[in-house]
Design goal:
278 residues; mainly alpha; 56% helix; 0% strand
Length: 278
């Protein structure tokens, strides 16, 4: 026993009659996901394959792995013990607006801020189009997409690659804070954990110059998620006319400050070749 290295102790490999890779993890068993994880974690960024394209592929892969019937059952049970969650589904509000609808709002309001970001051209904004959800899960997914850009604004995350870390970690913290069933919370967080870990690993491997910026963003996202109300269920149209600080107060957004991550984000995304700090 003493001859076995400490880190290698306890390994008991199991035999199998299978002719292909098989494990107790549906994620490990999926060849497409294994390839995605390796590519997303280890590659350097390049203009030939933008980070958004990674998420488009990941969404399709995860859809093949989800047990949607079980997810629906868990959501239904959660609604019985979580009044705010139940009320959100009962109302079933879906946004239906175009960016031009925001152009007359004052520049310092939530709507004015969103309009400026969406029209200045420094970061691609695409409002998630509305559709009629066929399930509770589809409703959650739709609203998550429709409010993502507001997560940036309310949480203080710039609209750049480093700024994406704040909404990611806000979601990873807030879902577990406000959902009682941890299995359901985990299912609701799968996309976010895959999405953010590619940032974390690639930053350390290839862009260590901005690692401290990444840590600051992660810490802020977690802090907001753990200390704030469940404003991911809010109707953002209700705060369009408020300034960002006013909206944060109304929606119980706690711990948010506006971080300047543009230079770090540009470097991470390959838009600049060097980084000397903001």
């Amino acid at each position: 026993m003493n001859q076995v290295p400490y880190l290698a102790r306890g390994v008991q490999l199991l035999g199998t009659d299978s002719s292909v890779l098989v494990s107790s993890s549906k994620y490990l068993n999926n060849a497409r996901l294994r390839e995605w994880v390796a590519l997303a974690a280890l590659r350097r960024n390049g203009p030939d394959f933008p980070p958004a394209a990674e998420m488009h592929e990941l969404i399709q892969i995860l859809a093949e792995l989800r047990d949607f019937d079980h997810i629906e059952a868990m959501i239904t049970e959660e609604r019985k013990v979580n009044p705010a969650f139940d009320a959100w589904f009962t109302e079933g509000f879906i946004s239906d607006y175009k960016i031009e609808d925001l152009k007359d709002y004052a520049p310092d309001t939530v709507a004015g801020t969103y309009y400026r970001i969406a029209t200045e051209g420094s970061y691609e904004i695409q409002i998630v189009p509305n559709f009629q959800p066929r399930s509770q899960w589809e409703y959650y997914s739709l609203r998550s997409g429709q409010t993502h850009d507001y997560d940036h604004i309310l949480c203080g995350g710039g609209f750049n690659y480093m700024g994406e870390l704040i909404p990611y970690w806000f979601r990873l913290a807030t879902i577990h804070t406000h959902i009682q069933n941890k299995e359901l919370a985990g299912e609701m967080s799968v996309l976010s954990i895959f999405g953010t870990m590619r940032y974390v690993i690639r930053t350390m491997l290839h862009y260590p110059e901005v690692w401290e910026t990444a840590l600051e963003c992660i810490a802020q996202g977690i802090r907001i998620g753990r200390e704030s109300g469940p404003f991911w269920m809010a109707k953002m149209e209700d705060v369009w006319g408020l300034t960002v600080p006013e909206a944060r107060e109304k929606l119980q957004v706690r711990g948010a400050v506006d971080l300047d991550t543009q230079a770090a984000g540009d470097y991470w995304g390959g838009l600049t070749s060097s980084y000397t700090g903001n």
